[in-house]
Design a protein that fits this description.
The structure holds two protein chains of two kinds. Chain A is α+β, with helices and mostly antiparallel strands. Chain A contains three helices and nine strands, in the order αβαβββαβββββ. Chain A has helices spanning about 5-15, 35-45, 80-85, and strands at about 35, 50-55, 65, 70, 95-100, 105-115, 120-125, 130, 140. In chain A, strand 6 (about 105-115) and strand 7 form a beta hairpin. Chain A is globular, with a radius of gyration of 14 Å. The model of chain A has no long low-confidence stretch (mean pLDDT about 95). By secondary structure, chain B is of the alpha+beta class. In chain B, about 30% of the residues lie in helices and about 40% in strands. Chain B has four helices and five strands, in the order H-E-E-E-E-E-H-H-H. In chain B, strands 1-2-3-4-5 form a five-stranded antiparallel beta sheet, with helices on one face. The model of chain B is unreliable at about 140-145 (pLDDT under 50). Classes of the chains: A alpha+beta, B alpha+beta. The interface between A and B is large, with 38 and 39 residues.
Chain lengths: ~140, ~150
């Protein structure tokens, strides 16, 4: 078992222990439960959500973004992020990440398994404001 | 790899949503997720339940910044999976100058997406799902549920 598999499994176990249902990849966004950020914060035991980025793209996210977003609770190295989250444009390495405090995000959908990947994701239908960022700068990940 | 949504291309996303949704519905797919920024790329995902198989068709858009011009990478992925097997293929990809993107949407996007939908409907997954492949044997599951 790789570190990425273990990290994913531990997150799944954490959610199950908190009686959180992880929905199938086939479930449409419209049928996922809508939760408050505070509710998701509790189901994650206060853990933060992650978004993987290229460093040069960070600036555009640091002021918040009202567009629909996907985040994950699971820490991956760049190669595993592409594989476990089934990311498009796989030759572009996401070298950095941003951390989000779920409790500061008004509305969150999910969690749901990633199709073909192994990871899990939450959806922010209305995006996020800058105060949801726990680290308002990109952090390198290796 | 800018966020497609954040560079004021909402009209193009709206148009692509309309084109892909119309084509998907003609092939029995339904919208699973509208355009969403997934770690730097914008994706729209369609799903079709086919017996025990889940089929997904995905259009993903990512930006590429060169020294002179901006270009868009449009990728079409098709996925088929059931409880044991899963497979994903890159059906097509297009690297398009930003100045030509409207023309690509108008002339090529629908045909490209329909090709992906057709390919998706014929996919038979043969690769073991990784979460199944690496799962603990049942006899160990109650000892360490990892």
């Amino acid at each position: 078992m790789s570190c990425a598999q273990l990290a994913t499994k531990l997150d799944i176990e954490m959610l199950h222990a908190n009686q959180v249902k992880i929905y199938s990849a086939s479930v449409p966004d419209a049928e996922l439960p809508r939760k408050s950020g505070a509710e998701v914060d509790r189901e994650l035991n206060g853990r933060m959500l992650l978004r993987y980025i290229r460093k040069e793209d960070a600036a555009r996210y640091l002021r918040g973004d009202a567009n629909r977003q996907c985040l994950t609770p699971t820490a991956y190295c760049p190669d595993d992020a592409i594989s476990f989250l089934n990311l498009p444009d796989p030759t572009t390495i996401r070298t950095h990440f941003l951390l989000f405090q779920a409790g500061r995000i008004p509305e969150i959908l999910g969690p749901r398994y990633v199709a073909w990947g192994q990871g899990i994701e939450y959806i922010l239908p209305e995006g996020f404001s800058s105060d949801a960022l726990a680290n308002p700068w990109p952090i390198s990940i290796r | 790899m800018a966020n497609f949504n954040q560079v004021n291309h909402m009209n193009q996303l709206d148009l692509l949503t309309h084109i892909t949704t119309e084509a998907a519905e003609e092939h029995g797919f339904t919208l699973r997720s509208p355009f969403c920024d997934r770690h730097g790329s914008s994706e729209i995902v369609f799903h079709k339940a086919d017996g025990a198989l889940d089929r997904f068709a995905v259009l993903a858009l990512s930006s590429r910044h060169g020294s002179q011009e901006q270009r868009w990478l449009a990728e079409l992925y098709v996925i088929a999976e059931n409880e044991r097997f899963a497979e994903r293929e890159l059906n097509a990809s297009f690297l398009i100058d930003a100045t030509q993107f409207d023309a690509w949407i108008a002339r090529s996007a629908r045909e490209a997406f329909e090709n992906a939908l057709r390919a998706c409907q014929h996919m038979i997954p043969t690769e073991w799902r990784r979460d199944v492949l690496f799962a603990a044997p049942p006899e160990l599951a109650t000892v360490a549920r990892l």
